[in-house]
Amino acid sequence: MSLHLLRHDAYVNGAWVQAKDRRTFDVHNPSTGALVGTVPDMGRNDTRDAIAAAQQAWPAWRALTAKERAVVLRRWFSLIMEHRDALAHLMSCESGKVISESLGEVTYGAAFVEWFAEEGKRAYGDVIPPHTRDRRLVVIRQGIGVVAAISPWNFPLAMITRKVAPALAAGCPVVIKPPAETPCTALALAVLAEAAGVPAGVYNTVTSTRSDEVGRELCENPTVRKLSFTGSTAVGKQLMAQCAPTLTKLSLELGGNAPFIVFDDADLDAAVQGAIQSKFRHNGQTCVCANRLLVQRGVYDAFVARFTDAVASLRSGDVLDPSVQVGPLISLKALGKVQGLVEDAVQHGAAVLHGGRVRDGLFFEPTVLGNVTSDMRVAGEEVFGPVAPVFRFETEAEAIALANNTVYGLAAYFYSRDVGRCWRVAEALEFGMVGINEGLISTELAPFGGVKESGMGREGSRQGLDAYLETKYLCFGGV
């Protein structure tokens, strides 16, 4: 079955609709500047309608058995995979992600739908041995209610499925607010959800550039019982404050400042490959990409030479060309930030070993900075671009201290062939996820999330279902 995926309407209560005030906004390809599509610019009243539709749809959806909901989710998964090429093409056009990575994201995102279709059947409760003979104590788990999901532009498909699939599996209806940069992929997912048989009102997508008023409605409307957000730490804190009056439950996956540590006993070829994968995935525009490369002094020169050669071989250009590995930055603002970080580092003594220049449009050369120190902005800020700053360190203890010297705690990576060191360092790093001799760690099977100011809660894995379930204790007396 082939479906028309590029839509110019939002999806609310089983219907394709425009904003009440008829406002719209255009979506442009960051690689070429071409118009991708025009979608509704919805406001607070539109969002309120979507929440009301979700609330109305909740009783019938939660009344289905977990197996019945799983059948719908499995159909959605199959349709996503059936339309993998079209989804990836659309994603690359609106996000600037190279086509090879977009194809990978569709598969990765679909995997969450497949996983939670089955995991929803395992929302187990408990039977507790009673404290008196005439009572029976039972614990059950039920869907939390209407869920709001605010997703980021850098993973326009997978960050929706990672939130929505467990919510639907738990019996919760959803209202999705995709980013203004990449709403078309979100609407394409809605097309497939509708075709899969997700009932009207259970799945709603509100497109908007009016993030403040839409976000405020999602936070302050007492009908919303749960908010899941992926984005910056600053916005996460703002949403948390707005949710406080109604005590809306929160899952927050926020900013990162991932260290990538190379010890002197590492396999340098493997470390270079892992650093390339981690640092330059989606042109460095991911929350878990390597942000600081920390290399032990004994292998610093050898690693930097091999790494710089590998970076120099990266090909940028047309994101729909399968041989291209690096695309554009998402916006002029993002480009300006990356330029500013490089200029600051150079002013404070860093050496540009490769790249460092703006190319056509929003393209910035893959860049390696040497002799980087902790007093440079690039040491403390999330780069979110194709810039790899390389720091020296002397001892294991120093590496751990440097790695942990950040308010963030999302992902960390290190390379070593010493088994004892692997255990020590993995346990000492203050991050929610650690890659040991591995630069790509994301999978639907494992919990994704951070500590400190990188957020709260976990997505994916069996823990990912917990965020959408409430625990209820039942006490039967007079037995």
Anisotropy-based shape: globular
- The CATH class assignment of the largest domain is Alpha Beta
Tally of alpha and pi helices: 15
* Oligomeric state of the chains in view: single chain
Topology, pairings included?
Layout: E1 10-12, E2 15-17, E3 24-28, E4 35-40, H1 44-63, H2 66-82, H3 84-95, H4 99-119, E5 126-128, E6 136-143, E7 146-150, H5 158-169, E8 174-177, H6 183-196, E9 203-205, H7 211-220, E10 224-230, H8 233-243, E11 249-253, E12 258-262, H9 268-280, E13 290-296, H10 297-312, H11 332-347, E14 351-354, E15 367-370, H12 377-380, E16 387-393, H13 396-404, E17 411-415, H14 419-428, E18 433-436, E19 455-456, H15 463-466, E20 469-476
Helix pairs in contact: 1-7, 2-4, 2-6, 3-4, 3-6, 4-5, 7-8, 9-10
